[in-house]
């Protein structure tokens, strides 16, 4: 009796020895190309004197370190405000788009489509220049309007993706629409929406770097001040090599947090099975012996 391989799939054939050798050769070639590109990049960096002590000296000074830490703190502050307000605005607009009242639904749709279509940089500049708002509120407002409108569509789509029978069963139990949405639909939709929500928050985190264009002293603005310093030979590349990993690390931390929450939700579902009491004899109807 023959048994099929555990790696068998109906979508593709299992690669044979010749195909595996070819794939191995492709992997070796791709690795060699990547190593060659990295070597060429390192050569360019050394050839342009990017690793000289003069360009890396500013990072050992306490004042430069405090400038970077202050900029990082301002970045995280703007992101925290924008994330909370974007989630709140997205929830409000999503409720508006799901409303049974046509004027409310049309108004919410208009706001979502307008702010989602507008470039976030244009909104930030408009709020900062035309409305004469301070840099931090202008940056947070622009990020909130854009990301909130995108999250509104995420929330609306997630709630509508819940099986229709769940909604009908809740209405059959006499629940109101608000109760159905908050107690039945939203908890089930959170799991499906969570990766997209975190992805949009990563976008908001990266977009905080636009604050340097309106003189907000965030992380990129601090790096720009260091990179434009003639006393250290304009250390632009060293600044990029210091700042970029920190941005990447923060985005990866958000992604890891989303994965952890999703795994926790799968292990500990909110809806657990409830034991059913055994049937017992009830009271007799009047006139029945």
What does this protein look like?
By secondary structure, the protein is mostly helical. The chain contains 10 helices and no strands.
- The total of beta strands comes to 0
Uncertain parts: 1-10, 271-282
Largest sheet: none
Please, what is the average pLDDT? Answer: 82
Shape: flat
Please report the distance between the alpha carbons of the first and last residues. Answer: 66 Å
Determine Rg (CA atoms, Å): 28 Å
Structural class: mainly alpha
What keyword list fits this structure?
mainly alpha; 289 residues; 71% helix
Walk me through the topology.
Blueprint: H1 17-47, H2 53-56, H3 62-97, H4 102-117, H5 120-130, H6 135-160, H7 164-172, H8 177-207, H9 219-227, H10 236-267
Helix pairs in contact: 3-4, 3-6, 3-9, 4-6, 5-6, 6-8, 7-8, 8-10, 9-10
Task: Give a quick precis of the structure.
The protein is mainly alpha-helical. The chain contains 10 helices and no strands.
